[in-house]
Amino acid sequence: KVQLPDKMSMRRFAFLLRITKDPALQKEYKEYHANVWPEMRAALKRTGWNNYSLFLHPDGSLFGVFESDRTLQQCLAAMEKEEINAKWQAEMKKFFPAAAELRPDETMVELEEVMHLE
Q1: Which one of the listed residues 11, 12, 21, 33 is annotated catalytic?
Q2: pLDDT at 103
Q3: By CB distance 3.0 to 4.6 Å, which of 67, 92, 108, 115 could disulfide with 10?
Q4: 38 neighbors 78 (Cβ within 8 angstroms)
Q5: 33 catalytic, yes or no?
């Protein structure tokens, strides 16, 4: 039986990434994310990524937000152990020109929540 996280223990996380400004590559990036592989979706859920969204600005700023009962570092560490994540990160590499030797998910900058309205 799968135990669902208690909504009361869930915390929201936000992060910033930077992808290419190239419109053709941004279009391809959006296509990938409109059709995230089922194995990747399952891995994200399994490792604590709930209610996860990405928002893209034409300048390449990519804002992500999700909820979890774990820390961002715990979620990232759990995903690093998932075989499908290595494949996904390799596919995403071309969209992150500044990532150099890092995987795209290693370039995340966690953002501080400064206001919340329910």
Answers
A1: 33
A2: 83
A3: 67
A4: no
A5: yes
- Token code pair at residue 84: 């499908």
Q: How far apart are CA 11 and CA 14, in angstroms?
A: 10
pTM of the model: 0.86
Q: Which two structure tokens, joined as six digits, stand for 90?
A: 């390799």
- CA separation, residue 110 to residues 13, 22, 87 (Å): 7, 24, 23
Among 42, 82, 85, 48, CA closest to 67: 48
Terminus-to-terminus CA distance in the chain, angstroms?
31
**What residues contact 62, with CB distance under 8 A and at least 6 apart?**
16, 17, 18, 19, 54, 55, 56
d(CA 90, CA 103): 8
Rounded CA separation 115/2 (Å): 33
